[in-house]
């Protein structure tokens, strides 16, 4: 076990001078790369620090900063590591799950704030590896205002880094929690943008398979909010006439055929959009259940969507009808419906036309 010395007086003068020349944010950035480049000495340091920080009674921040600084000095003397880290200044780690981390960072050459997604490839099963390939191929080939922008991607040992747009705002789930149900006009605007992004996915034969409010980011101010679909980590390529079988997604936004282990195609994303539209209008999802079995039963037994009676009288009939079409059990939805999601509101009369 390595000894962690929290006493700054034990630092040598030379080490202090070196540490002063390494920005702390860059130290974290270098250490992040060290983790994935599997250097045994750094891996041991990380292990020690993690265990040490897990003890809430310990005042460990001096030790942590000291170890991070020394690690950065050690790595900065390696030209290969310096070359990899020189263009990214990591500021803050803010999301983590079993297979990936997301970091807020600054691109040093442009000054742009970006998000860096670190995916641990060795932890992915074959389906998730296929989805990662799909995500990289798709995002590297599109530049659309309603789809998260990929700036760069580069591999390291056992992982890959994706540099994407940073969202300083909130996701759609947080927006709904903050505002509750949104006005119909706002829901139509959001749905128009989702429809535009779905058209791009469809033109590239991509199914997202995890469309939900948490994966839709909001950019801009309230009067000019732009939605962007993010997190394509469960996406797949599916050409016309083919079907997918992998069960994945978030149950409350998954089409019933997926929940019931049936084959499915791109229309499962349409179901998810219907669930999102319903939640925008009502402030809650259309279906729920204690488990997936009950959720499927509730969907299959539903005769009327549970619209809030407070809003139904004020909704335009075609808005209710759109929810019904999108959330039909085993829907038969024509391909042209993708275009019909792009509603046009006529401000002078507040009447609605639907492009077909």
Automatic annotation (TrEMBL):
Domain Protein kinase span(s) in chain numbering: 88-349
One record GO biological process: autophagosome assembly
Domain of life: Eukaryota
Molecular functions per Gene Ontology: ATP binding; protein serine/threonine kinase activity
Short name of one Pfam family: Pkinase
Family annotation (InterPro entries): Atg1-like, Kinase-like_dom_sf, Prot_kinase_dom, Ser/Thr_kinase_AS
Recorded GO CC terms: autophagosome; cytosol; membrane; phagophore assembly site
Protein name: Protein kinase domain-containing protein
Naturally occurring in which organism (per UniProt): Citrus x changshan-huyou
């Amino acid at each position: 076990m390595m000894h962690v010395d929290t006493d700054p007086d034990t630092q040598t003068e030379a080490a202090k001078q070196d540490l002063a020349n390494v920005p702390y944010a860059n130290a974290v950035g270098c250490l992040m790369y060290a983790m994935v480049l599997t250097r045994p000495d750094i891996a041991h340091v990380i292990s020690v620090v993690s265990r040490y920080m897990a003890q809430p009674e310990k005042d460990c921040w001096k030790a942590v900063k000291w170890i991070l600084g020394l690690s950065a000095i050690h790595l900065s003397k390696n030209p290969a590591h310096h070359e990899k880290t020189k263009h990214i200044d990591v500021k803050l780690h803010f999301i983590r799950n079993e297979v990936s981390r997301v970091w807020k960072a600054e691109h040093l050459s442009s000054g742009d704030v970006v998000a860096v997604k670190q995916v641990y490839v060795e932890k992915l099963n074959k389906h998730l590896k296929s989805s990662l390939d799909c995500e990289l191929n798709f995002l590297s080939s599109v530049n659309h205002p309603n789809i998260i922008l990929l700036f760069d991607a580069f591999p390291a040992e056992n992982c890959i880094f994706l540099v994407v747009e940073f969202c300083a705002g909130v996701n759609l789930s947080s927006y709904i929690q903050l505002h509750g149900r949104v006005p119909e006009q706002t829901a139509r605007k959001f749905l128009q943008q989702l429809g535009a992004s779905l058209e791009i996915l469809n033109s590239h034969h991509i199914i997202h398979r995890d469309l939900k409010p948490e994966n839709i980011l909001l950019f801009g101010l309230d009067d000019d909010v732009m939605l962007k679909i993010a997190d394509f980590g469960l996406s797949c390529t599916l050409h016309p006439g083919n079907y997918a079988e992998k069960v994945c997604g978030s149950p409350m936004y998954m089409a019933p055929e997926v929940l019931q282990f049936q084959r499915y195609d791109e229309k499962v994303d349409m179901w998810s959009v219907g669930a999102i539209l319903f939640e925008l209008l009502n402030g809650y999802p259309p279906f729920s259940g204690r488990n997936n079995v009950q959720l499927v039963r509730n969907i299959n037994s539903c005769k009327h969507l549970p619209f809030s009676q407070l809003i139904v009288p004020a909704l335009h009939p075609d808005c209710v009808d759109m929810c019904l079409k999108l959330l039909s059990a085993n829907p038969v939805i024509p391909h042209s419906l993708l275009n019909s999601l792009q509603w046009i509101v006529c401000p002078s009369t507040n009447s609605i036309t639907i492009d077909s």
